[in-house]
Amino acid sequence: MHQQLSKDTGLSPKPLLQDKLKIFQGVISIFYLVGLVGMSLPMFRDYFQILTPMHLLLNFGILLYFHRGWNIQFLLFLVIGFLLGYGSEVLGVHTGFPFGDYWYGPVLGWQLFEVPLMIGINWLILVYCTGNLLAVKIENDWLAAILGAFMMMLIDVIIEPVAVALDFWQWESDIIPISNFIGWIAVAFIIQLFYRKLKFHKENAISWYLLFNLITFFAVLNFIL
């Protein structure tokens, strides 16, 4: 198919991939910039909060579009990552373990067991993107999983104040407990280890760019909200 494409258009697959990459990078930047403006302005904030689940799905869809080498083990990672991330949140909401006492607002969309399904997608996005950054740099799976978990915890430090301000979730007594960050490291480490141990292609051309925009989005909102 690639050879036929080259003959018919005179273009090789690699430049075509680069063109797609630039287009989707532009889409990501536009969506995050528009979202930043919308969330910053009280008059528009309610409308943009409603769009949050769709924005998460867009991020996830773009990551999957640029993923290469689909196989059974990659699908297994998606299932395990979702179930572990989502399951830990269900456990947390109903027992306080491992994160602390909190509950979800309506912003993140449809809920099952009082936890939005998008939270499972959010865990997958963060594990996949941080895991990708370390995949080609660190050979040791355990070290990569530990570093990936700490990276995710630091990202959560940036996300938490914004998420509370936008009613993604709320904490008991309005205090974010230390147990939340310890719990994040523990759950993230387990999922990161599955990410490393399962055999599938671990390079994604756009994951770092999406992660950069996500972190920038929440970092800027910390100064605005």
UniProtKB/TrEMBL annotation:
PANTHER family listed in its UniProt record: SLL0814 PROTEIN
Organism ancestry: Bacteria, Pseudomonadati, Bacteroidota, Cytophagia, Cytophagales
Protein name in UniProt: Putative membrane protein
Organism listed in the record: Mongoliibacter ruber
Signal peptide annotation: none
Transmembrane region(s): 21-41, 47-67, 74-97, 117-135, 142-163, 175-194, 206-224
Keyword Membrane: yes
Keywords: Membrane, Transmembrane, Transmembrane helix
Highest taxon of source: Bacteria
